[in-house]
């Protein structure tokens, strides 16, 4: 079970852990987020939702174990792979390489976390719940890019981690050359089939990420993985002497604020056994619970018995564990994806469903088949609590479009976006001015960008938007514009929807505008790439933090007008919390692209206008954690970048149609 303590509100921790335990989970696995815990070099934050010690202690209180994935590079569709952006400005740094500046800060943070855990007695060697720690993350994917600096970094990383003397094993996932005694582990959906196994006979067979679904991007469809497929591959891994399987994710949660990586939607692994809101998703949760119970019923024999494997047919085989004392467990596997198979095992006939495994805890009676789902499906229900359809309830503020003369940062070339904003904002204004030659007509503005989105304004008039996608990194904006015969102000807003989270040389990535031209004809083009540019980081509303109640008076709000061409507009209203305990969402299906805040807390980016290939929005419902809400007078602020209609958004509650969700865990809060 992999849960993100920094994504979810601490009030949700007890019930999430309790539901996981009830589902047969033994270990809670979590990443550690360097950018949250050390937002500035040497300045640490473990308060509130970032209370890592509190999260581990809650696991311990409920009688479960923990796996601490320190990283501190974590990827995980988290902005910048979890790195704090201040690392970027360390002179001479090369991330994740045998590079002294990087190793210095990586060791500092890793040591900080380990010492924090030790000081609270949280390692199993101290009587605590942490039985495993992880260093690095899927490094083998990029190791070759660093040539000789890659393998030497792996050796240094392992030695550094082991030298911290936690008294529990360290693992490296997707790292076949993990140095002894660090354990190499598998990530993926079919590790029983794809994993070569541990690189030493003294190391156990471990699966650190069994993907229960897959992350979703803006413009992308959700990935649905069946309960049967998950169960098959877990059973197969155990049959091959696997001793540890972690579900990534068992609960994903919500990418609050600006924490999602490039193009990642705000909802994370909603198709997991516990959905984004912490509700049980059936049949996935129930089917896996039955699988866990079947495996645990014969765990002694699985641990102590001798394993053998033999064929039962062309596509059928048996994995058998036999104890000298007589205990016997069998996994009967049918690899035929289309047809049932009748097999003989121990002189007993068994009918195996297509692509399935039957578990026999006594080598005689099948108590579980991975393809036989006995848990009924449940459905998630959305109930509208209130509409925001009255203009009188809304006020708006149109953000200021800066011109060249308004900017203080100047350069004679196009600056890289991320290095300029330092991740303080998604937004960077590129501005310039020029005098048009009146003899030319029908100018076309062309923008090349390696960012995510670009909005174009000419003399404060909006002329359009272009964007890339998760799979197509660059894009071009090209549109006719209107120019006057005096000085013209061009203001281009570059937008990042999260920072990159993977790949080598992350510190050297380029984002933002790469070329700007105004074309009058095939023969006449003005190139402004090397020109005098003015820059502004962020929007005025961001700078003044007008999403906080105490800062609302920093700007002049007016009654909402709502038009189809109203970019960079802030909207605000107030609302009362829905009665009850059901999770709360905002339906933003009539908005375009932007960000939403409730009582000063960002609940994430939205991008409803980016449709999938089927013409649907990737996400329309946005989670509002109950812990953010007061009973009445809650402040809702929306920043709409392009065009949206707040009069048709709604506040909803989410529930399921099965009785299990009515189980209460109130005793956990006492």
Automatic annotation (TrEMBL):
Signal peptide, first to last residue: 1-20
Similarity remark: Belongs to the glycosyl hydrolase 35 family.
InterPro entries recorded: BetaGal_gal-bd, Galactose-bd-like_sf, GH, GHD, Gly_Hdrlase_35_cat, Glyco_hydro_35_CS, Glycoside_Hdrlase_35
Domain Beta-galactosidase beta-sandwich, chain residue ranges per copy: 317-373
EC number: 3.2.1.23
SUPFAM superfamilies in the cross-refs: (Trans)glycosidases (SSF51445), Galactose-binding domain-like (SSF49785)
GO MF term set: beta-galactosidase activity
Limits of the Glycoside hydrolase 35 catalytic domain: 11-294
Protein name from the UniProt record: Beta-galactosidase
Catalytic activity: Hydrolysis of terminal non-reducing beta-D-galactose residues in beta-D-galactosides
Record Pfam families: BetaGal_gal-bd, GHD, Glyco_hydro_35
GO CC, any one term: apoplast
Localization (cell): Secreted, Extracellular space, Apoplast
């Amino acid at each position: 079970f992999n849960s993100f303590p920094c994504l979810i509100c601490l009030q949700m921790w007890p019930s999430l852990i309790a539901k996981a335990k009830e589902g047969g989970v033994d270990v809670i696995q979590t990443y550690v987020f360097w950018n949250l815990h050390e937002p500035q070099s040497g300045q640490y934050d473990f308060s509130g939702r970032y209370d890592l010690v509190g999260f581990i202690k809650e696991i311990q209180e409920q009688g479960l174990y923990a796996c601490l994935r320190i990283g501190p590079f974590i990827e995980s569709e988290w902005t910048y792979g979890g790195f704090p952006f201040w690392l970027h400005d360390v002179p001479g740094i090369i991330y994740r390489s045998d590079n002294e500046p990087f190793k210095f800060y990586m060791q500092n943070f890793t040591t900080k976390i380990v010492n924090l855990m030790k000081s609270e007695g949280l390692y199993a060697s101290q009587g605590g719940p942490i039985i495993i720690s992880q260093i690095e993350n899927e490094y083998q994917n990029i190791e070759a890019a660093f040539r000789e600096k890659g393998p030497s970094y792996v050796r240094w990383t392992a030695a550094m981690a082991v030298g911290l003397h936690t008294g529990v094993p360290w693992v490296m996932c997707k790292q076949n050359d993990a140095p002894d005694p660090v354990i190499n582990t598998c990530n993926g959906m079919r590790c029983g089939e794809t994993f070569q196994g541990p690189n030493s006979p003294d190391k156990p067979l471990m699966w650190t990420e069994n993907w229960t679904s897959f992350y979703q991007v803006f413009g992308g469809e959700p990935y649905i993985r069946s309960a049967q497929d998950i169960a098959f591959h877990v059973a197969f891994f155990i049959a091959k002497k696997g001793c540890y399987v972690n579900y990534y994710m068992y609960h994903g949660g919500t990418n609050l604020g600006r924490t999602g990586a490039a193009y990642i939607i705000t909802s994370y692994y909603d198709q997991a056994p516990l959905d984004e809101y912490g509700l049980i998703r059936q049949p996935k949760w129930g089917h896996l619970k039955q699988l866990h119970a079947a495996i645990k019923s014969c765990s002694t024999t699985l641990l102590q018995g001798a394993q053998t494997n033999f064929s039962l047919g062309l596509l059928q085989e048996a994995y058998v564990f036999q104890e000298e004392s007589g205990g016997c467990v069998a996994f009967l596997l049918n690899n035929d994806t289309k047809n049932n198979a009748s097999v003989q095992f121990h002189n007993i006939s068994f009918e195996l469903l297509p692509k399935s495994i039957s578990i026999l805890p006594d080598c005689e009676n099948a108590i579980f088949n991975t393809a036989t789902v006995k848990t009924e499906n449940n459905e998630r229900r959305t109930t509208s609590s209130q509409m925001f359809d009255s203009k009188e309830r809304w006020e708006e503020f149109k953000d200021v479009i800066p011109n060249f003369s308004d900017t203080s940062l100047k350069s004679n070339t196009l600056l890289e976006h991320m290095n300029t904003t330092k991740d303080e904002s998604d937004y960077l204004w590129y501005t310039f001015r020029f005098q048009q030659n009146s003899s030319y007509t029908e100018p076309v503005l062309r923008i090349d960008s390696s960012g995510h989105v670009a909005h174009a304004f000419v003399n404060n008039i909006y002329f359009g938007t272009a964007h890339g996608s998760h799979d197509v990194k660059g894009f071009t904006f090209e549109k006719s514009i209107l120019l006057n015969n005096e000085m013209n102000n061009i203001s281009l807003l570059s937008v990042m929807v999260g920072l990159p989270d993977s790949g080598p040389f992350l510190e050297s990535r380029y984002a933002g505008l790469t070329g700007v031209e105004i074309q009058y004809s095939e023969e006449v083009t003005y190139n402004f790439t090397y020109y005098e540019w003015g820059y502004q980081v962020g929007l005025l509303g961001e700078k003044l933090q007008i999403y906080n109640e105490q800062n609302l008076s920093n700007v002049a709000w007016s009654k909402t007008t709502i038009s189809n061409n109203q970019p960079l507009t802030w909207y605000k209203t107030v609302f009362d919390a829905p009665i009850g305990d059901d999770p709360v969402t905002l339906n933003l299906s009539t908005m375009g692209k932007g960000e939403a805040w409730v009582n000063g807390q960002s609940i994430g980016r939205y991008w409803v206008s980016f449709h999938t290939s089927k013409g649907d929005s990737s996400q329309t419902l946005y989670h509002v954690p109950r812990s953010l809400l007061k009973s009445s007078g809650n402040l809702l602020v929306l920043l709409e970048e392009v065009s949206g209609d707040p009069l048709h958004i709604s506040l909803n509650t989410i529930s399921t149609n099965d009785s299990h969700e009515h189980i209460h865990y109130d005793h956990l809060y006492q």
